[in-house]
Write the structure tokens for this entry.
Amino acid sequence: MSRQIDEKTWQRLQARANAQNLSVDELLNDLLDEANAEMICNDHMLDAAPSSILITDARQPDHPIVFANATFEQVTGYSQDETLGYNCRFLQNDDRDQPGIDQIRSAVERGESCTVLLRNYRKDGSMFWNELRIAPVRDATGQLTHFVGIQNDVTERKRIEEELLKSETRLRSLLESQSAFVIRTDMNGEYTYVNPAFVSWYGWEREKLLSESVLETIHVLDHEKTERIVEACILQPGQPFQVLLRKIMPDRGLRHTLWEFMGIQDSSGAVMEIQCVGFDITKQLELEEALQQSEARYRTAVESSLDAFYLLESVRDDITGDVIDFRIVEVNENAVQQMGLSRTALVNGLICELFPINRTGGFFEQYKHVVETEHPFEQEYMIPADHAAPGWYHHQVVKVGDGVAIVNRDITERKRSEVMLRTSEEKYRLLVENSYQGIMIEQVDPIRISFANQAIEDIIGYTPDEMLSMDRDSLLAITHPDDREAFVQHLMDCIQGKETAPDFRVQIYRKNGEFRYINVNRVLITYEEHPAVQMTFIDVTDRVESERLKSQFRVEQERNALIQRIISMLSHDLRTPLAVIASSRDLLVRYHDRLSAKKRQEKLDTIGRQVQFATELLEDTVNMARSPLTARKFEPRPVNLATLCQVSVDEVRSIHNGDYPINCTNLGHVKTVAVDEVLVSRIFLNLLSNAIKYSPVGGQIRLELDRSDEWIILRVIDQGMGISEDDLPHIFDPFYRADDAHHINGTGLGLNIVKDCVDRHEGRIHVESKLGQGSVFTVELPMQVDSSDQ
Ligand code: ADP
């Protein structure tokens, strides 16, 4: 890529050179150094790779292309598919008659590197000038394996070379300078005159030059052009023709020279000599090209960038030379937008004056450091709300000339979402970690736990770390076998986005082997950027247990009611035989003397039969009533006694519509105890029912749960009518009822049942009571407690 040096640039150069008392040449030299520095900086910034690169395999027949970079594709329009595996010659189409092709061929044959200029054709058929450099690649044994080809599209340069020639003024200015070369050649192409400037530039003795053919010192690719110009000079003597030629220097290096050829006629009017006035423009061309390349890349990047771009120039103290501020040399549109000032207000402004935060916020010092150390620098920073352009930015600072280039990206939005994300993640984390619910996150593929909170340990006994190390099988192993299939299905449904049943219940083995009922809820979430299932665990074992105990208790209640009914039936059925007995006895007493012996015997027999009938009726009924109670096997198993107490109190209270305040206190913090829960239910039911039955409405009743070293203690305390000293020894006898209790419905069986239940536990029961002062029934059951839970 190159660019024509325009008229204005030349005039400016000339003016600057005059002002600095330099020749244009010297000025260009200085500029060249600056330009290189800038170019290097820009290259660093943009990391552009402008050349097409091809690699061919020299070991395969016809050297197929094995690599082509993206630029090659861009420049030629040929895709990788159309390139790889083919010989490079497709780039020449049918234009095979080119000197460069022969050069390449022989270099390849010799395994040497070379540089040639070729007319190549893009896929769309358009021609471009390709300056191709090829270099051999050898393996460790020295065997030629590949050729690397670096192509540069120099079409533009060729065009410029031609355009350059058209500028008369430019040529004149060159010619006028002292360093212009003047030579003359004869029609055989031999030097006839060389001026001192040319001699010193070329570096050969005048004599040696004069014995040399001019064409020998011109690059082979420019021979044709030279011959054309010479022909033109012959045809139009006196008329100047410009040409740009590459001169081969004694060290074989190339220099770009600009010439004006003119045919000089002898007296006969024939052209016998060509006068050539020229100038070495290599530096200018290189400079222009370098500047242009660097500038074009820089421009595109700067203007097309979404980032704000600032070019700052150091402002130095006149005396000390220290950097004291930076002047804005250039800004792009985004910078104008970002700073909220017009371009005119920004350009030439001093950054610390325009925006004092540059000094107070330490930016000035950072830029100064970059200028002094040449170390590029980048950081994210925040401009507070009370300054111009508040927000978050990322800036990249590199040294350019005596100043810095700054690429500034507004990252406020990114920061804001980062903060939001962090806050929301923080909230989520706090919620999850402190939740009383167990929360685990299951990674979906493969299934494993990627997060577990502390509550999980309380629920299933495994620490969060132990949970994380579980795989799918170990997770299933802690699930009750009956629930495994449904548990997996529930997970699958959740992963597939199907609606899953809320509060899905599973039984899980705790680490200590105990079963817990767990309600599981699952939702599909994104965790650490992957789909995952969030599971919440709630231990509902106590709830399940209390529901079970409740229904158990109700069964007992019904049984009790049944007994009551049976007993009242019995009392009804007994009335007939008792009436018969009573009337028979009456007759016997009253009419004893009047009745014959036979009649008396008949009456006595009737009494005997009725007594027999009544006894049988009584026995049958008692057997029938007691059998469901006594037939049951004694089955102690761990049960949460606290729950059972509460359930019993709630149930009894509900029967009596809350007329009796009943308190339940767990003084000994008793929890799980191995008892027969059916029998214990019966104990509670009967003792609590009696306490209510024998208390006035509103009487206080208390159920206490306590423990000693060996016993679980249950106390039912009331403030009701109490029991007389005479009755106390008998109240556990079947059908015994105190005299004072006769106006109250009852069977006299309840305490007998309680005694039976206590006996089956090998426990003890006793009662303390005073008439009119209430009673305390104390039941002691031997402790068979699962102590781990207390
Ligand atoms: P029932 O209550 O059906 O009569 P029980 O066997 O439950 O039969 O009780 C036997 C007797 O003990 C009762 O009739 C009553 O006289 C007495 N009794 C039981 N509990 C109490 C109590 N909490 N307060 C006063 N007397 C009671």
Summary: Residues 566 and 572 are 10 Å apart (CA to CA).
